[in-house]
Amino acid sequence: MNRKLFSLNRLLAIIKKEFIQVRRDPISLRIPIAMPIVMMLLFGYAVTTEVDKIPTAVFDQSKTQESREYIDKFVASDYFVVKFNVGSEKEISELIDRGKVKAAVIIPSSYANDLKQDKTPQTQLIIDGTDPTTARTALNSGLLVSQVYSMTFRDKALKKIGASAARLPGVSMNSKVWYNPNLESKRFTIPGLVGLILQNITIMLTAFALVREKERGTIEQLIVTPLRPLELILGKLVPYIIIGYAGFLFALSLCIFWFGVYPAGSLALLLLLGFLFVYCSLSIGMLISTFARTQMQAMMVMILVLLPSILLSGFIFPREAMPLLVNLLGYILPLTYFLDIVRGIMLKGVGMGYLLGDVIALCVFTMIILSVATLRFRKSLD
Fold first, then answer.
1. Number of helices (H) and strands (E), helices first, in the chain?
2. What is the pTM of this model?
3. What is the pLDDT of residues 205-243, one digit of tens each?
């Protein structure tokens, strides 16, 4: 019997069936709303690379006006908060060991006298290095505060001899930060979070699509129908494309109206390319469902896909700092390319000309993954 290779009527029938099944599964309808809210709030406020208000202990052995002015400069920088004034280095050690402070400033007893005699007093900044991010911030900020404060005294000394630090030769650097002038970590994290949420929603929705059919036994009913594998795959994707894209729009709305990260480029282009990534991620979920026999297996495979995406795509950690092999692994993750797209449009305002390589990569990934998922599907019980 000769059957059509592709039938629109059969495709519409499976789409209608899947919509009915989704309507009977309220969790599938709540995920696109609940997940963006939870992940946006958790990652948006908890994941930050900005470090300030570092709890600090002070061991002031000088106890003079000059030493107090020195400490005030640390507090005024807004990077340090003096939590404890201690009387010995042993107390500093105990506070750091207990995690009460992350840094400590030690001022020698000869501090004020050395300044008055035009000598250079030697202060000490002790840092808890268990958290490298906090330690680097404390180190760089502490050195900068001390250097600026030291320059004021050098300028005074030069004025005594009729000179000025401003007249001495040197190098002046005029710095300017593009796209994120205030270096706010949320402007980097939040747009990337839109892509991560979109991937998680879509893969989660479709990873269980065929698996549910297997566990419930309804796959047997599909076997006896004239459905083609491509018709079944596409028919199951359509409802989840709508649900997944709705989740993308909701996450993008939170990004703009809640966190105040507005797109610097074309919103229409972002919406169009967001649809492409929805389709690509849904294809990944559908491919997972062709491998897994149970929902537990699907969940385990999904974790194996999602975890590397968080670590290797550049969502949080810069890929340039990774070893070469690990960096190359990031290129096999579709999220890597979509993060370039969403951050390029949201932060830099770039257009299609700059994003063409990422768009082509997503298209290739989508076609390959969807083709493999279709070929792997067999209308049988095995």
1. 15, 4
2. 0.77
3. 888 777 777 777 676 666 667 777 677 777 777 888 888
Dihedral angle of Cα 268, 269, 274, 276, to the nearest 10 degrees: 120
What is the spatial distance between Cα 310 and Cα 289, in angstroms, rounded to a whole number? 21
Residue 243: Cβ-neighbour burial (10 angstroms; 0-12, 13-18, 19+): buried
Q: Give the pLDDT band of residue 131 (cuts 50, 70, 90).
A: confident
What's the CA gap between 285 and 305, in Å, rounded? Answer: 10
The two structure tokens encoding residue 80 = 């340090």
Return mean pLDDT, the chain: 81
54-167 in CATH: which number?
Answer: 3.40.1710.10
Amino acid letter, 180 = N
Q: CB within 8 A of 39, min separation 6: which ones?
A: 193, 196, 197, 200
Q: 103 with 58: CB under 8 angstroms?
A: no
Report which DSSP code applies to 347: I
State how far the Cα of 166 lies from the Cα of 51, in Å rounded to an integer: 32
Q: What's the whole-number mean pLDDT along residues 198-211?
A: 83
Element (H, E) at 1: none
Torsions phi, psi for 210 (to 5 deg): -75, -30
Per the model's pLDDT, the better-predicted residue between 340 and 222 turns out to be 340
Q: Report the C-alpha gap between 263 and 10 in whole angstroms.
A: 41
Q: Within 13 Å, how many C-alpha atoms sit on residue 191's CB side?
A: 27
The helix/strand/coil state of 198 is: helix
Helices 229-253 and 186-207, axial angle in degrees (round to 10): 150
| For the chain, domain boundaries | 8-48+184-376, 54-167
